[in-house]
Design goal:
Shape of chain A: elongated
Largest interface: A-B, 21 and 23 residues
CATH architecture of the domain at 108-200 in chain B: Up-down Bundle
CATH topology of the domain at 108-200 in chain B: Cytochrome Bc1 Complex, Chain C
Helix content of chain B: 55-70%
Structural class of chain A: mainly alpha
Radius of gyration of chain A: 21 Å
Order of helices and strands of chain B: HHHHHHHHH
Number of helices of chain A: 3
Structural class of chain B: mainly alpha
Strand content of chain B: under 5%
Number of strands of chain B: 0
CATH superfamily of the domain at 108-200 in chain B: Cytochrome Bc1 Complex, Chain C
Strand order of the largest sheet of chain A: 1-2
Largest sheet of chain B: none
Oligomer: heterodimer
Radius of gyration of chain B: 23 Å
CATH class of the domain at 108-200 in chain B: Mainly Alpha
Number of helices of chain B: 9
Helix content of chain A: 55-70%
């Protein structure tokens, strides 16, 4: 049963993300990096910026003195 | 019949000396505080604990993989599942650890006598890299074969290949499931205890910011602009 469920799941994911090919690579002069690594780095930068910019729930109340 | 009271513990006992030093360095209210400074109420401060949460999932899924073995994680559905949980937990571990590193770098988290906090964190990051590498070369598939044959040249170029053979599955597996995890978990434990001892580093105080906004605390005590406790 588990194999059937996982098999269906991987089939659905496989239809969306086809991984049956060599990795896509960005190559510009000396710079060479796989697209997947670039995506992860850009995601980290985006999450870092959001972590600084977005207000934390309850932060304003705590700074106001009511903790 | 009366029982004579036991004499006070001798100062020469190493257990007494160790206990007294431990309590002096980390009294219970500092080890397990019931509040944090108000500046900790920011998303940038959650990535350290997110890294530890990822590490817990890595260790738990790794224990299951180690008890079942390569045939299980390659040829059964549930084995594939735990193999994937382990791999994605590692992705999340590095993802959150790098954001934690960036946040602490830009707030100069070594301020206020926190050099050892910074160093234990940095060394943990450096040890985590070969921990992941030894995991990739322990998969027992074409991916691990490709990575190990690529990595061996780098290892040989540094001279480490003489005692660190990335094409030797048994050796790499031992490093991956025993030696490196012990180092990572011990360093993380030391890192957390040092954070408890010195407190979470405060943000920089802006020169023109209102004092109440920049330096308000609900717990944890006041700090100078370099993060040292007043």
């Amino acid at each position: 049963m588990n194999q059937i469920v996982l098999g269906v799941g991987s089939g659905v994911l496989g239809a969306v993300f086809n991984l049956n090919h060599p990795a896509h690579v960005v190559h510009w002069h000396f710079f060479e990096m796989s697209v997947s690594n670039i995506v992860v780095i850009l995601l980290m930068l985006a999450v870092f910026a959001l972590a600084i910019a977005l207000p934390f729930p309850g932060a304003a109340r705590r700074r106001g003195g009511a903790s | 019949m009366s029982v004579a009271p036991s004499p006070p513990p001798a100062k020469t006992s190493w257990t007494v000396r160790t206990r007294e030093k431990a309590v002096e360095a980390l009294p219970p209210e500092k080890l397990l505080p019931d509040g944090q400074p108000t500046y900790v109420a920011s998303w940038i401060y959650v990535f350290g604990v997110a890294t530890i949460a990822s590490l817990v999932v890595i260790v738990a899924s790794g224990v299951i993989l180690a008890t079942k073995g390569p045939a299980w994680w390659h040829y059964t559905g549930i084995g594939h599942f735990f193999n994937s949980v382990h791999m994605w937990a590692v992705e999340l571990f590095f993802f959150t650890m790098v954001i934690h590193l960036w946040g602490k770098y830009w707030m100069a988290a070594w301020r206020g006598g926190r050099a050892r906090v910074w160093v234990t964190g940095a060394v943990t990051f450096l040890i985590a890299i070969p921990t992941a590498l030894t995991g990739y070369v322990s998969q027992q598939n074409f991916d691990s074969q490709w990575i190990s044959t690529q990595a061996k040249d780098a290892m040989n170029a540094t001279g480490a290949g003489a005692f660190f053979n990335v094409t030797n599955f048994g050796q790499m597996y031992s490093w991956h499931i025993l030696l490196f995890p012990i180092a990572v978990v011990a360093l993380v434990a030391a890192h957390v205890l040092l954070v408890r001892r010195h407190g979470v580093v405060p943000p920089f105080v802006l020169a023109d910011a209102p004092r109440s906004a920049a330096g308000a605390h609900s717990a944890g005590g006041a700090h100078t602009s370099d993060g040292a406790p007043r």
